[in-house]
């Protein structure tokens, strides 16, 4: 989910130091990220030896590159070439899958990977904040741990030295919320709003936490128009309202009272496999709640 909206830009909050979790994890290699002006968690990488910037996106199963940008890295879908793999469907779009020879970030070498190519209306290097998406395919494959507050992503390098994050987080007063991977590949966590149970999509690619207007109407929660719009990967846009929520819980963690975005979310976001989604847990809330996304243990830690 890529919402072109930022109610609380992380870049305006500054790089708050958080010593609650050790900056290094035994058995892992750390890669630093930074936040763009629209709450984008951006990772500097090397694609086929050339510098690039990718959006770290737990809401995407695939690694995705803009078609024009990929061509500058020597990546193009050619039926006669070795890089051509096939096609895959994302949100109703049939997109070509190509092959990149090398992907690295910091001291971490991810080797060769399949990559989905997608045309962007803002194609062209130098005109975009990011060149593509760093998705779950690589993050899960390397047991990533994403610390949203300290702006570090850890990748497993030595299984024998893997740290027990649950024990560390518990000692630092974090609340553990089990994550589940749905049939669609999406990561979800349990939630409670106005006493109604549901599940939230854990999406670092969503710039703000957003709830469907139909849910809030059914719960009797009023919202106020903002004049802002949300843009989705399918190209559709929806007007955005905001609503005050004082009783949102994620697992056993009570989220601080705040205003959240409300919009008519598309069907592909509201249904993940057999699971009905109650909202999208975006970067603003993940940052404020000091979220640590542990893909090795499939836990979300909040504080």
Structure description:
Residues 1-7 and 123-127 have low confidence and may be disordered. The strands form four sheets. The chain has a six-stranded mixed barrel. Strands 12, 13, 14, 18, 19 and 23 form a six-stranded mixed beta sheet that branches. It has two domains: 10-161, Cathepsin D, subunit A, domain 1; 173-302, Cathepsin D, subunit A, domain 1. Helix content is 12%, strand content 43%. With 303 residues, it is mainly beta. It is globular, with a radius of gyration of 19 Å. The protein has helices at residues 67-72, 136-141, 165-171, 213-219, 267-270, 283-288; strands at residues 28-35, 41-47, 50-56, 64-66, 86-90, 93-105, 108-118, 132-134, 145-147, 152-156, 175-178, 180-181, 187-193, 196-202, 210-212, 224-231, 237-245, 249-250, 253-254, 258-263, 271-272, 275-276, 279-281, 292-294, 299-302.
Sum up the structure in keywords.
single chain, Cathepsin D, subunit A, domain 1, 6-stranded mixed sheet, disordered N terminus, mainly beta, 303 residues, 2 domains
